[in-house]
Description:
Mean pLDDT: 92
CATH topology: Rossmann fold
Number of strands: 5
Largest sheet: 5 strands, parallel
Strand order of the largest sheet: 2-1-3-4-5
Radius of gyration: 17 Å
Bound molecules: flavin mononucleotide
Distance between the termini: 62 Å
Low-confidence stretches: 52-56
Number of helices: 8
CATH class: Alpha Beta
Strand content: 15-25%
Number of domains: 1
CATH superfamily: Flavodoxin domain
Structural class: alpha/beta
Amino acid sequence: MPRRPRLLLLNGALAGNGGNTAAALAAARRRLVRNAAVETLTRAEAFADTPAGGALRGDLPPALVEALARADGFLFGTGTHWDGWSSVLQQFLEMATPLEGTSAWLGKPAAVVVTEHSVGGKAVLSRLQGVLVTLGCGLPPMSGLVLSRAALLAAAQDPAAARDFWSRSDLGVVCHNLLTAARVRAQPWKAWPVDRADFRGRWLEA
Ligand SMILES: Cc1cc2nc3c(=O)[nH]c(=O)nc-3n(C[C@H](O)[C@H](O)[C@H](O)COP(=O)(O)O)c2cc1C
């Protein structure tokens, strides 16, 4: 019987629970719950108990830190906003910086779903995957997907021509590969030294 991993779905979308990314993550969740214990956090819940100025102080709420710690793997979701990921996901990454290279991330697989209207999502996906690897995560094969409104419209118009475009059904592959990677017990990964004391320090004189 394969191990039943714990997966954390992190919805970093601007529109929170009511948006397009939430719809994609809900579809992923339906697939994943068959074989994993799945927890979903949206920015609204995750940052709910952040004190004023928390983002600038860079502290994640304790409940979110605990959710990261107990997860065996992650599925991140965001929209595309002016060629970038959402500001709330950016805020999350800034707040998660003290955990860089720690056991919260180290060696845990991270999958990513990006939604977009038409352009910029692939660059968001690739850059986000780069950040996640630098935090300490691993990337399973074929675990990053861009769901594009333009591609869905094209597929509705001409399914044969759009056969090679990413579609909702590719979520199945993303979920499968995330699950497969999350079942593997942690390897003895190492983290390089990380400045935990002064990484917000000023380094330029006026
Ligand atoms: C402020 C803003 C900027 C956006 N910029 C882009 C963009 O650069 N490229 C794109 O394809 N879609 C863009 N979109 C569309 C969103 O990426 C798309 O609707 C996405 O699914 C939104 O995710 P959400 O509903 O989960 O928040 C933008 C939407 C907003 C609100």
